[in-house]
Amino acid sequence: MGTVEPQVASGQDVKVMSSGQIVANAHSQDVTDGFHLVIDALKLNGIDTIFGLPGIPITDFTRMAQAAGLRVISFRHEQNAGNAAAIAGFMTQKPGICLTVSAPGFLNGLTALANATVNCFPMILISGSSEREIVDLQQGDYEEMDQLAIAKPLCKAAFRVLQAEDIGVGIARAIRAAVSGRPGGVYLDLPAKLFAQTLDAEAGKKSLIKVVDPAPKQIPGADAVKRAVDLLKGATKPLIVLGKGAAYAQADTEIRSFIEKTGIPYLPMSMAKGLLPDTHEQSASAARSYVLPEADVVMLIGARLNWLLSHGKGKTWGGKDHKDWGGQKFIQIDISPQEMDSNVRIDAPLVGDVGSCVSALLAVIGSNWAKPPAEWLNAIAERKNKNIAKMAETLAKNPTPMNFHSALNVVRDIVKANPDAILVNEGANALDFTRSIVDMYKPRKRLDVGTWGIMGIGMGFSVAAAVVSGLQVIAIEGDSAFGFSGMEVETICRYNLPVCVVVFNNNGVYRGTDVNPTGGPDVAPTVFVKGARYDKLIEAFGGVGVHATTPADLRKAMEEAIRSRKPTLINAVIDETAGTESGRITSLNPTSGKKK
Ligand SMILES: Cc1ncc(C[n+]2csc(CCOP(=O)(O)OP(=O)(O)O)c2C)c(N)n1
Ligand SMILES: [Mg+2]
Q1: C-alpha 473 to ligand 1 mean position (Å)
Q2: Is the pTM of this model over 0.85?
Q3: Which residues form ligand 1's pocket by a CB distance below 6 Å?
C-alpha cells in the first residue's frame, strides 16, 4: 500500500479549537499536536517501550516516539507485538503498549489483547483508525472498521479519543483500567485525524495526567482474614495453590514467608513456578495427583478454579464423577470479588490484592503457628520422593533418537546453572514435559501459554522478556508452536537479543507419525515436512543456527548461546513417535458417540 496517502491534513497547518472545530493554523513553536501529546502522556506515566508495527496512520508516530526517547520495538506481525506488550505488562506491572495500524493490523493485535485479558496481563492496544464520519456511514474508507465496537467485548475496557485535548484523559483512563483491580487488556482507538490536530503547547501540557497510584492496594477486611485463618487452623491436610496472580503481585517475600511459617505444602501453577524454588521441600508438585483429592483445606493464592484446576471438582479433587465436589473447603485470595464461588463454594473468600492479603494473614498467624500434622507431610514426601526417583531414572536414559526427556534433562541442567534466565515455553508435549521436568528457581522466570493454552506467544514473549529484563531468554518451542511466530527470529536478530530458541522438532503437531488414511498424496493434517531444518531460518538473518541430534549437541549449543548471548536457534531433533495427542490434555478431545 506504499502509494496510498493518508487523507489527513498535516500537523503543521491545522489547529483544533475547544469546540472540536479544526482550523488553519500558522506554524508556531508553542504548538503541540496529537502525535506528541500521546508520546508525552505515555512518557509522563513512566512508559518507556512500545511494541508495534508501523503503517498508516501511525508510521510517523513510531518515528516521533523513537526520536522522543521511547524504545520502539518493531515486529513482523502485530500478534507478536501484542503478545510482547502483554508479557511486558505481566513482568513489570505497567501496561505493555502495543501499537498497530487500522483494521487488519488492529485485528492482528486483537488476539493478544483478548489473551492478555483472559490471563490478567495489563496491556493497552493502541490502534490508529480511519475517519469516523466515513466509517460510521460505511462509505468504504481505507481500512474501514468500527474497531472500538469490535474490541469492546474482548477486553477489560475500550476508549476512543477524538480531540487532542482529551489525550491525557484517554491515556490515564487506559492505564488505570489496565492495571487496577484485576489487570487486563485495554483498547485505545486513535483516529488518524487526532494525530494531526494541534493545540497550544501550554494547554496541551496542562491537559496531560500523571496517574497517581494507578493500582491502589486493596486491603482485605479483618473479618475475612480471621475467617480464613480460623479455617486454616482447623485443617489437618492443608494445601496452598499458587497461581499466576501470585507471581504477578511481586509479593515474593511475603508469600515465601507465609508458606515457610505455616509449613503448609504448596503447588505452583505453571507461571507461579519459581515463586519459591521448585526444589523447596514444601513443594508438592511431584505429588499433585495425591494432594489435590486428599487435602481438606485448600488456600488458593492468585489462582482461579478454572479448567487448569479441573474447576475445583471431579475426580482430580476426589469427587465421584466429573461434576462431583470433593470434600475440600476453600480459602481463596483474589483481587476480584466475583471470582468467588465461580465453580465451587468458597468457604473463606479473601478479597484484595495478593500482597495485602498475605501480609494480613502473616500479621494474624504470628510466629508460632503449628505446622501441619507429620502424617500429612510424610505421606506427601513419600509420594514425592518416589515420583522424583522415577523421573530421575527416565531422565538418565539416553535413547536414540533423542526424546523429550533426554533433551529436557539438558534444559533442566542449563536452567539450574542459569537461574536468572527467563524460560518461554509453548507446544503440547514440548510444553507439558518442560513444565514438569524443568525446575524454576526464581519468580516470574517461566512465561508460557497461560489460561487459554494459546500457541503463538513464543517469539513475542521472548522479545519482550529480553527487552524488558536484559537477561538471557531460553524459548522451548514445539515445532508447530514455533511456526506461529517464527518470523520474529528476524526481530530477535535485528535487536541482537540474547534469545536462545530451541525447537523441539518431532515433525508435527503432537507427533510426526500420522498417515493419510486414504493413501492419497497429502500428508496427515498433523504432520509437517520431515527433517525440517529450523536452524537455517535464523542463519538468514545473521543469527546462530545449530542442528542438534543428541543431548550432548544440545548442551554444547545452549551453553554457547548463553555464553555468547547471540541470537541462536537450535533445531533439536526429537523422536517423532514420542509425543501424545494434545500432550497431557488428551481427554479434552471430543470423541464421537457414533458407533464405528
Ligand atoms: C492459537 C492456537 N491454535 C491451535 C492450537 C491447538 N494446538 C495445541 S498445541 C498445538 C501444537 C502442538 O504441536 P507442537 O508445538 O509441535 O508440540 P509437540 O506436542 O509436538 O511437542 C496446537 C496446534 C492452540 N492451542 N492455539
Ligand atoms: Mg511437534
Answers
A1: 21
A2: yes
A3: 427-430, 453-456, 478-481, 504, 506, 509-510, 579, 583
